[in-house]
Specification:
2 copies of one chain form a homodimer.
Chain A lengths: L9 H9 L4 H10 L4 H8 L3 H13 L3 E5 L7 E5 L1 H4 L2 H14 L8 E5 L24 E5 L5 H8 L7
Antiparallel strand pairs in A: 1-2
Helix pairs in contact in A: 2-3
Chain lengths: 163, 163
C-alpha cells in the first residue's frame, strides 16, 4: 500500500483503509456472499499476493473476520464484521452514482432492489433531522471533538465550514 | 494509474475513476471550495505531477471542469461539474462511516451539520420506496439492462442476487 495519509480527516482515514482499486472490490464480493480465498480471487481477478495482503489488512482493521472452517486441516472463511456490514451506505452511494453517471442511460449493469417489494431503491441522499433532502450547499462542516489545529484551520477557511 | 478493472460492475467502474488514495482527497478539496492548483496541493499534500495527473483525469471524466481565469496569461480554476456535485452522497456516507468506525467515540475530527438548523446530519441509510430503512439483508442485486453474461452469472450465484 502507498504511504498513508496523516491528515486528521474522516475521508483521509477512510482512504487509508479503502483507497486503492482492489480493496472495495473485495468488500463488494464479501457483500455478494463470497467467503473463500478462491472465490475472492475468481470474482475480482486480483493476483494472489495482492489479495492476500488486502484480506489481511481488512482483518487487521476489523472489517472482515477470518475463521478456520476446515474439518481436516486449515481452511479459512472471511466474513464481514458488524463494522464491515456498516459499509452498506457507502457501497449503495457508489453504485447509484456510477449507474447514473458512468453508464449511458439504460445500460446500468446492476440495480439494487428491495427484497420485500422488488422495487428499485430510491437514490440515497443526505437529509436533515426533519427528513428534508440536503444538497452540498445546505451542508456545513463543523470541527468535531477530535479536530487538531490543522483541521480547525482547514474548516474555518472552507466555503463549507462553520463560521 | 493502475490497470483499470474491466468487469461490468458499477463499483469497478467507480474505482476506475476514484480507486486511489489521492483522487477522493482532491474531490474533498473541491467540495471544501478549493479551485486552484496550489490550493489542492497545499491542502492534500499531493506531489505536483501526481496532482496534475489526477486533475487532468477528473476533467477528462467530466467530474471537474477547468476554466482559464487569468486576467493576464493563463491561470486555471477547477470546479465540480453537476456530475461531480452528485458525489455528495458518496462523500457523506464515507465521512459518516469513518467517524463512526475509525475514530474512538467523541474523537471525530469533522462533523456535518445542516446550514439551516446547525444540527448534525442523521446517518444516511438506504431506504425502500416507502422510506423504510434497509440493511444489506433487505437488498437484492438485479441484473440491469447493461449486464453481460459474466455479470448475469455473478448476480445469479450471489446470496444477494435476484433468484
Amino acid at each position: 500500500m502507498a504511504k498513508p495519509h496523516t491528515q486528521t480527516c474522516p475521508i483521509a482515514a477512510f482512504l487509508n483503509v479503502f483507497g486503492d482499486a482492489w480493496t472495495l472490490m473485495i468488500i463488494r464480493e464479501a457483500f455478494y456472499g463470497a467467503t473463500r480465498f478462491t472465490e475472492f480471487q475468481r470474482n475480482t481477478g486480483a493476483a494472489r499476493n495482492l489479495l492476500s495482503d488486502r484480506l489481511a489488512m481488512l482483518v487487521s482493521n476489523g472489517v472482515l473476520e477470518r475463521q478456520n472452517v476446515g474439518e481436516q486441516g486449515t481452511r479459512y472463511a472471511y466474513r464481514l464484521t458488524d463494522k464491515g456490514q456498516s459499509l452498506v451506505p457507502v457501497l449503495v452511494a457508489m453504485m447509484q452514482w456510477s449507474n447514473a453517471h458512468l453508464y449511458d442511460k439504460d445500460h446500468a449493469p446492476v440495480e439494487l432492489i428491495d427484497r420485500q417489494y422488488l422495487r428499485p431503491l430510491p437514490t440515497m441522499q443526505p437529509t436533515n433531522g426533519d427528513g428534508n433532502i440536503l444538497g452540498w450547499a445546505d451542508i456545513l462542516a463543523k470541527p468535531g471533538p477530535g479536530a487538531n489545529s490543522k483541521a480547525l484551520a482547514r474548516i474555518r477557511d472552507s466555503r463549507h465550514g462553520t463560521p
